[in-house]
């Protein structure tokens, strides 16, 4: 009885206030889409960092077979050459380099296969197509120039690469995009809160007579306020579901179907990440609605 | 049933109090008229009983509860023991008579079968049998007030508060409403009625509490309305009040029903 009655009140309230409810749905939709986008951008950064960033800062690529670099005249880097380079790192660069990790061709292939189980651009590769490298972690990432100077031109070293230089601009871009999305999300969330507040107020005013009677015949506070609370929450949740759906579509068609095919050497966020973010959006929507309802209702439907 | 102990109510700092040191004791099952000019404190009195307001000083007891110190979440429990009727009926226009009465039970969580049984009974009692499906706009003023009374008593309150229930009705219709209130009183419900209707007060000969500027100036067991000039002192002899017909109305006969 109670439940049915409350539901009836909720739907009559939603009907009476259709335009405002649609506005709430749309504003929460847009704002939570930005929130979700910010979360996905951070997830993307996390994915990139997981893959490379934290493992390597400087890659010393060792000569592969058939390299045209002058230091590779003797062909593939020999164990002796690798040992020599390691020794130099241990002695001359002991203060700059904190960690050395040798990635053999086999290890490189393993990592590669993990990322591309179906082969790269249609061709099946083998361990011999990979390049062995020494990966260095620097005590201070700014010291790259010193490391590069010392190691470049040594026998068996094809090239010294600062991986950070490759990723730093990308991360910076992604971080800026995150900030932008978060900022817009903040503004939109504020708009959403104000809009929900107004909607509930309108709803409360249009049902003033009912609530007045309810108060007088001794309906409990919760019972009087519940329809309004549910109204706001329902609209907000609908908005958050739309946001989740929008993000899912965006990831599905823009990232998985397009970006992943054109630039395929990076790991991208996937629909799974959207599914991970979506519940958070719903929770946010509920919290948002509950919060704004709570403050409005205490002012407009006081006993 | 209702006890006011030295109750004062001041709305704005420095303003004249709406009620000033009022002490009134209403016994269970009593019928009390609250009379006085507009602004004399009648409405404040009723809203203190309902705990729409808290007294500035003094204590208000309703059905054994100290209303002034009642915490907010207990207020609904108090109000379930009170019924209220207003001059303007306050029926919900988008609901039928039956739905209006049922609403009062729905919102306090009564089960459906109780509502199904009780509402027609109450409509029958107030004389609206068979009119449950009408909309309020399809009823006469008297019938609307009966519907409002039905809503007020459907939960069998111990106390019925009526704020000028006959204020919008003609004398004959008012008589019908008074009979109904009298009958409700005879079932043991305490009735407190604020009114301006001197004829009704004079005919009923029940307890009269007269307020003037927030002070109880008279509390008579079987009183009349009193001198109109005394109750409306500032108006004096006005052409409107003394217009032909207003004072020459035939006395209303209240027929007691057993």
TrEMBL record, chain A:
Domain FtsX extracellular: 56-160
Extent of the signal sequence: none
Protein's name in the database: Cell division protein FtsX
A biological-process GO annotation: cell division
Highest taxon listed in the record's lineage: Bacteria
Membrane topology field: Multi-pass membrane protein
Domain ABC3 transporter permease C-terminal: 184-302
Species annotation: Promicromonospora soli
PANTHER family attached to this UniProt entry: CELL DIVISION PROTEIN FTSX
Pfam families: FtsX (PF02687), FtsX_ECD (PF18075)
Function: Part of the ABC transporter FtsEX involved in cellular division.
Subunit note: Forms a membrane-associated complex with FtsE.
Keywords: Cell cycle, Cell division, Cell membrane, Membrane, Transmembrane, Transmembrane helix
InterPro entries linked to this entry: ABC3_permease_C, FtsX, FtsX_actino, FtsX_ECD
Family, as annotated: Belongs to the ABC-4 integral membrane protein family. FtsX subfamily.
Transmembrane segments: 21-45, 176-202, 222-255, 275-297
Localization: Cell membrane
GO cellular component, one term: plasma membrane
